[in-house]
Amino acid sequence: MPQQLTELVEAADLNRLLRAVDGLCAARSWEALVDLADMCEEALERGKQLWPIAAHIDYRLALEAPGDYAASVLHPETARFALGPLTEVAASTHTWAELADHIDEPLVAAYVAQERILRGEALEGDSRAHRDMLDMPLALQEWEPAYPLATYRSDHVEVAEVWEPRAPLVRQTTVDADELDEPELTSALLDLVHPWTAESNGAARAVVVEGDAVAAVSRLTVNSLRIGPLTAEEAIQRMAWAAASGGAHGRRRGAALGRFMAFYVTALLTDLQWPPEPPLLGARAGELSWYRWDEGDVEQGWVLRLAVADPVNDWAAAIAATDLLEDDED
Questions:
Q1: Are 249 and 324 in contact (CB under 8 A)?
Q2: What is the per-residue DSSP string for 161-213?
Q3: Collapsing DSSP states into helix, strand and coil, what is residue 74?
Q4: Are strands 315-323 and 203-210 parallel, antiparallel or unpaired?
Q5: Residues whose CB falls within 8 Å of the CB of residue 118, separated by 6 or more in sequence, listed in order
Q6: Is-contact 193 242, C-beta < 8 A?
Q7: Cα–Cα distance between 278 and 144 in angstroms, integer?
Q8: What's the angle, vertex CA 112, arms to CA 23 and CA 123, rounded to 5?
Q9: What is the mean pLDDT of residues 249-271?
Q10: Whose CA is closest to 83, among 161, 153, 160, 162?
Q11: What is the pLDDT of residues 104-129, one digit of tens each?
Q12: Taking a C-beta distance cutoff of 8 angstroms, is the pair 129, 109 a contact?
């Protein structure tokens, strides 16, 4: 390790250390980068607050380093101030073949595999993908949407948006409806946006009622509402996008978890035992009636306003979730 980097660590000079990390990445000096991370972690024991540098080095290794280095920093959790889970970061810039043989922890391998599947790889029959950990198919299904994916940069992340539906919103009058006691379903719907409400400025409510989608949405608004149909593909895409997101200030959970949660909520809505057979799940999802809705105002920030109805059994569910970039008082 060059003496200059040792001096920067001892001085706890965060700005110059970040520039040093940029230089090591540009030079592809991965071993020196690992050594610098070790020095920063050791310095924590001496009271030097260099954990942001160590965490940033892990991020840059996952993003830019060869597969063996990238795999060495992967874990299933998202660090408090990370741009996203490192499993998603690494999978966004590496193929499965580059990473798979270097991952020892099954759960980490499962998440990386699912991220690569979302990017078009098919991994059926590959035991390294550990299908049993998440009980998710190892290839995209014909009935699935194109999922909004993240593109990671050295200092920021860009996330694709959901599709703009073709069907317009139509104004409706609110109606009274009896709410049903379905705690598992309402909890699963709220889990889609948990980081928005637990780690950010967001608020969310979910209901299940007797009746149609307008009846469900009416329980979530005191104003007039607008509602329009979605395809099952569009609805699943929106659920996956929301579940992957951290909202304004929460931790991003990644597209793999987003897809998992969209599958899980759909299985509950269609009364299928987990894990469902993927073709059956897609068929049952297509039998439900899906909707988006709003209250006629301009939506800001992160928004999930979704409703779904079972016309055969005469019940419906809806969720209203929002998260603003700024605090209300700002």
A1: no
A2: PPP--SSPPEEE-----PBP--HHHHHHHHHTTHHHHHSSS-EEEEEEEES-H
A3: coil
A4: antiparallel
A5: 140, 147, 149, 255, 256, 259
A6: yes
A7: 10
A8: 130
A9: 97
A10: 153
A11: 999 999 999 999 999 999 999 999 99
A12: yes
